[in-house]
Specification:
Blueprint (H helix, E strand, L loop, with lengths): L2 E4 L5 E2 L10 E3 L10 E3 L8 E4 L7 E4 L34 E3 L7 E14 L2 E6 L7 E2 L19 E3 L50 E8 L17 E8 L2 E9 L9 E9 L9 E9 L5 E12 L16 E6 L4 E6 L16
Antiparallel strand pairs: 1-2, 1-16, 3-4, 5-6, 7-8, 8-9, 8-17, 10-12, 11-12, 12-15, 13-14, 15-16, 18-19
Length: 354
C-alpha cells in the first residue's frame, strides 16, 4: 500500500518517494490527485479555526488534524482570516468543542481526530490525530505566491472563503483570497487549488460553500519539529550521565511518535450554508505512505472523546463523570449521553452525541 484515498472508501495506488532538506518533489502521476508538490517543511506551530457555515457551526479543526480543542467567544464568529484567535489560550479552554446550541458554551466533544494503523516491516503501528496526537503540521508549497497575501505557504490551513486579514499591512483587507467557482479571479485573487476530482470538479471549483485544506504527517525528521508542534504532545527531557551524576539538559519535542508510521495526511472538509447538508461537516482524508516499503493491512478510523459538559472531581458528578455510552442497533450508532439528564450551568437539558 503506497497511498490511501480515504473518503468513504479506501483505494490503494502507487506513489513515489520523498527528498529531504525542505525540498519538494513532483508527485508521481496518479488517478487520485494529492498536491502537485510534496514538501517536508513544517508549517507554523498552530493555525486553527472553526469550520461549518450552516447549522453546525462550532466544530473545531486545526492544521494538525486535531478536532476539538478550543471554545470561541462571540467576537470570533467571523470568516477565517489567517490569524490566530489568540496567542496564549487559557488552560481551561481545553476540550471546548462540539458546542450546541451555538453561543451557549455547552460543549459535547473534548477531542476527536483520525487514527490510521498498518503493519510496517512486520510491526503493527498507529498514528493519531487525537487524543495524544503525533501528527505535525506540514507547509503547503502551492501557497508560496498568492496574489492577495504573497507567501503564506507555512500557514498550513486554508479556507475557500478565507479573507485578507486587517491590520497586517495587506491591500484589499476583508476581501476574499480565492474567487468564487466559475468566476474569473480579480487581480488580487487566485483559484481554489485544493479541490478533489473524485467529486467530479475541476481546478478552481469548490465542493461546498466552505472547503478547507490542511496537511500533516509523522514522517518529518525529528530535528525539524519546532515549528510543526501539535497540541497535546508532551515534551521529553533527556538525561545525560556525567561522572555518575544525572544531568537533565535536553528537551525533545515529541511531535511524532517514537516509532513513526511514516504517512502524510491531507485533510479536506466541506460544509454548506443551506440545503440538506447544512447541519453537517464532511471530512475527507487522503493518506500517503512516505516510506520506501509497503504498509500492510491498513485501517482507518475516526476517534472521538465525547465529554458532555465540564466540572466535577469525583465519579457521579457533572462533566464526563456521569456520561454513559450505548449502541442503537437499528441505526448502527454508538452514542454518548448524560446519565442524570442535567449539567450545572446549562440552559438546556443535555442532548445525545454519536
Amino acid at each position: 500500500m503506497r497511498k490511501l484515498s480515504v473518503i468513504l472508501i479506501m483505494t490503494g495506488v502507487i506513489f513515489a518517494g520523498l527528498s529531504t532538506d525542505y525540498e519538494s518533489v513532483t508527485r508521481a502521476e496518479s488517478d487520485y490527485r494529492l498536491l502537485g508538490e510534496i514538501t517536508d517543511e513544517p508549517a507554523e506551530a498552530w493555525r486553527y479555526w472553526w469550520v461549518g457555515v450552516g447549522d453546525f457551526t462550532d466544530f473545531t479543526i486545526t492544521n494538525t488534524t486535531v478536532t476539538g480543542y478550543f471554545g470561541r467567544s462571540f467576537d470570533q464568529y467571523h470568516p477565517y482570516s489567517c490569524l490566530l484567535p489568540w496567542e496564549s489560550p487559557a488552560d481551561n479552554e481545553d476540550g471546548n468543542a462540539g458546542e450546541y446550541p451555538v453561543g451557549s458554551e455547552q460543549y459535547y466533544i473534548y477531542a476527536a481526530g483520525p487514527w490510521f494503523g498498518a503493519i510496517s516491516q512486520g510491526e503493527p503501528n498507529v498514528i493519531k490525530g487525537a487524543y495524544r496526537g503525533d501528527l505535525g503540521a506540514i507547509a503547503v508549497p502551492e501557497m508560496s505566491n498568492t496574489s492577495a497575501m504573497g507567501d503564506i505557504h507555512i500557514l498550513g490551513l486554508y479556507f475557500s472563503n478565507m479573507i485578507v486579514p486587517s491590520g497586517q499591512g495587506f491591500n484589499n483587507e476583508g476581501k476574499r483570497v480565492f474567487t468564487f467557482p466559475d468566476n474569473t479571479p480579480k487581480p488580487y485573487q487566485d483559484n481554489w487549488p485544493f479541490n478533489d476530482p473524485a467529486y467530479g470538479r475541476s481546478d478552481g471549483e469548490w465542493i461546498s460553500h466552505e472547503d478547507t485544506y490542511a496537511v500533516a504527517g509523522d514522517w518529518i525528521l525529528q530535528d525539524r519539529d519546532s515549528l510543526a508542534r501539535g497540541v497535546w504532545i508532551p515534551d521529553t527531557v533527556v538525561d545525560t550521565i556525567v561522572n555518575g551524576d544525572t544531568i537533565y539538559d535536553t528537551t525533545i519535542y515529541q511531535v511524532y511518535g517514537i516509532q513513526p508510521l511514516g504517512v502524510r495526511v491531507e485533510q479536506r472538509t466541506y460544509s454548506w450554508a443551506r440545503g440538506r447538508l447544512r447541519n453537517a461537516v464532511v471530512l475527507n482524508y487522503k493518506i500517503m505512505n512516505m516510506n520506501d516499503h509497503t504498509l500492510e493491512a491498513p485501517y482507518f478510523s475516526y476517534f472521538m472523546d465525547n465529554d458532555i459538559g465540564h466540572g466535577g472531581e469525583n465519579p457521579g458528578e457533572d462533566g464526563a463523570w456521569d456520561d454513559r455510552i450505548d449502541y442503537d442497533a437499528a441505526h448502527e450508532v454508538v452514542y454518548t449521553y448524560d446519565d442524570n439528564g442535567s449539567e450545572s450551568g446549562w440552559n438546556t437539558a443535555p442532548g445525545y452525541i454519536g
